[in-house]
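User: My instructor asked us to take a sequence, write out its structure as tokens, and then describe one feature of it. I'm not sure where to start. Here is the sequence I was given:
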Amino acid sequence: MNPSNPTAPPPAFQRVYVWELPVRFYHWLNALCILVLTVTGFIIANPPAINTASEASFSYWFGTTRFIHFAAAYVFVFNFAFRIYWGFVGNQYADWKNFLPLRLAQFREVVKVLKVDILQSSNKPLMAVGHNALAYLTYFVMFLVFLFQVASGFAMYANMSDAWFPQLFTWLLPIFGGDAGLRQWHHLATWFFIIFTIVHVYLVFYHDYVEGHGVLSSMAGGWKFLPAGKSDGKSWFGGKPAAKTADQTGNPVI
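Assistant: Let's start with the prediction itself. The structure tokens for your sequence are:
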């Protein structure tokens, strides 16, 4: 009920099930991996001097830090591989084709999003059910940086491991001038994730406030809330019906 007008009917909306559980699990596990990798990576790049009165051989904190970094890297790789797989078997909002601007409508939406989010020349929010086109394109670029971080990290790790997986990436070392050169690029790419995270969190809260259809909560429960009559639960690009929808009472809408 509208507080300013008690007799007015409650605003009609429909719930659309957008993010499936595997996508949500990937998202939060990926965020945790990036956090752990970033913190441990900076410690490895510039180890702090820790004074202790005990024998040095009794302390193995730096080795533990490196182990956590490498373990998180393996989790990151398998999680990323799973997300690629889910891009082929998941619902329409997880589809890999959304991440590539293959259609003219996607390019047009990128321009519209830039006008709203970056140039602030338009205050009309876009009713994208999944991600908007610019977000999908940004995530595609992020996936490419993921690949580089994985390849460069395991290339440097190959000198300390006899495992077959790190050895697959040793060809990167001469291209970037050995361990030292590749380490600089690996460190630089880390700042991409830091900047991306800051912008990502800001835009999530911004769109949640401006559009008001549950962008933030959708990555926890999977549902978004769209005004009834303004969206039929179809994908912005694909035109397929949403997997699940519900009216303002929570009852499923067929």
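For the description part of your assignment, you could build on this observation: DSSP finds eight helices and three strands in the chain. Try explaining in your own words what that tells you about the chain.
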